[in-house]
Amino acid sequence: MSTPADASAYTKDNPFPAKLTENRQLNKPGSAKETRHFVVSLAGSGLHYKAGDSLGVFPTNPPETVAEVLERLGAKGDEPVSPAMLKLPAPITLREALTARLTLASPTRKIVETMAAKAASDAEKAKLTGLLVPESKEVLTAFLDEREYADLLAEFPSAKLTPQEFVDHLRKLMPRLYSIASSPKVSPSDIHLTVAVVRYTTNNRERVGVCSTFLADRALIGSTPTPVFVSHSHFGPPEDGAKDCIMIGPGTGIAPFRAFLQDRVASGATGRNWIFFGDQKRATDFLYEEEWAQYLEQGHLTRLDTAFSRDQILKIYVQDRMRENAAELWQWLQGGAYFFVCGDAKRMAKDVDQALHDIIADQGKMTPAAAVDYVKQLKKDKRYQRDVY
């Protein structure tokens, strides 16, 4: 069977051992956030990507978490295990399973049931059993939300589990997908990422986002293999370069629009570009500020509207800026503009969607039902696209 010339041997099931070539903080000192710009080299992979695609990254767990779990299990790490969900042809070491194959976060009810059955201490057994009664359902959810597997091993030391019993409760460590922040027309053998590094505290313990801190702290520039694959998407700039683009990308949601702009400039697209960007503070959180300024100066970026929520008493968000510019936004849409949204699905994308419906109804003098139909048509024509997570 012949494969297309641009097909790569590297896929999600066989990721490419890429290397990081850049890791820099985008926020300025004093920011409450840690957002980083990473460059991943695809040299020698045969992988291709387009603006709008995502990069899948397979992380490893923090070594200190792995060490704690081994210690709590009373294990050395070289014990052979066969985690059922991995369907492996042969056993692997416990250390490899805990480091690179299984997630050590988000414990489930099942581990509580097992530990309740195995607890040798009456007090521990009583506490675990109490969490499992039907009326404690919400208590159990809150209890597990605050903990990782290491916490449970620490809190209930009398419940002794063998390495195999323990790994059978764990789920697969899944790759994380990040919107690509570069265009192959500018960086064909490199992929840029814009990543919010997650660090927080629960149950009086410091926690981390596994993949964001893998990239930030554990993947050493030029040396640590970083297993990656390209996830192709239907999200992307219009094929017709004469079309205008309205792009809503607060926080790390700006990533694909950096790619879109690079792409459109490189291909000589004549359509106008309008970006809405938001974050906490202009002084510390204006991601890629210098690049946007340059695009504005060169005329490649027609409009840049920003919403910095913490710079005034009343919080201002991207959807508020949309409403302020309702008449012009409607003109762009009526002229055939494409409307793109990237970022938080739970709140931002819903609020932006609501603002879009309201603007269309108000500016187009339509009933709410007619505005809904208008938006449906935008989606059908692929003029309203979302990359939300």
Which helices and strands appear, and what pairs or packs with what?
Layout: E1 16-25, E2 35-41, E3 54-57, H1 63-73, E4 80-81, E5 92-93, H2 94-101, H3 109-118, H4 122-132, H5 137-145, H6 149-155, H7 163-167, E6 176-179, E7 190-196, E8 199-202, E9 205-208, H8 210-218, E10 226-231, E11 245-248, H9 255-266, E12 273-279, H10 282-285, H11 289-298, E13 303-308, H12 318-324, H13 326-334, E14 338-343, H14 348-363, H15 368-380, E15 384-388
Parallel strand pairs: 11-12, 11-14, 12-13, 14-15
Antiparallel strand pairs: 1-2, 1-10, 2-7, 3-6, 3-10, 4-5, 8-9
Mind explaining what this structure looks like?
The protein is of the alpha/beta class and 389 residues long. The protein folds into three domains: 16-59 and 175-231, Translation factors (Elongation Factor Tu (Ef-tu), domain 3), CATH 2.40.30; 63-167, NADPH-cytochrome p450 Reductase, Chain A, domain 3 (Up-down Bundle); 245-388, 3-Layer(aba) Sandwich (Rossmann fold). 36% of the residues lie in helices and 20% in strands. The chain is built from 15 helices and 15 strands. The chain has helices at 63-73, 94-101, 109-118, 122-132, 137-145, 149-155, 163-167, 210-218, 255-266, 282-285, 289-298, 318-324, 326-334, 348-363, 368-380, and strands spanning 16-25, 35-41, 54-57, 80-81, 92-93, 176-179, 190-196, 199-202, 205-208, 226-231, 245-248, 273-279, 303-308, 338-343, 384-388. It has a six-stranded antiparallel β-sheet with strand order 6-3-10-1-2-7, covered by helices on one side. Strands 13-12-11-14-15 form a five-stranded parallel β-sheet, with helices on both faces. Strands 4-5 form a two-stranded antiparallel ribbon. Strand 8 (199-202) and strand 9 form a beta hairpin. Helix 1 packs antiparallel against helix 2, helix 1 (63-73) runs parallel beside helix 6 (149-155) and helix 12 (318-324) runs parallel beside helix 14. The model is unreliable at 1-5 (pLDDT under 50).
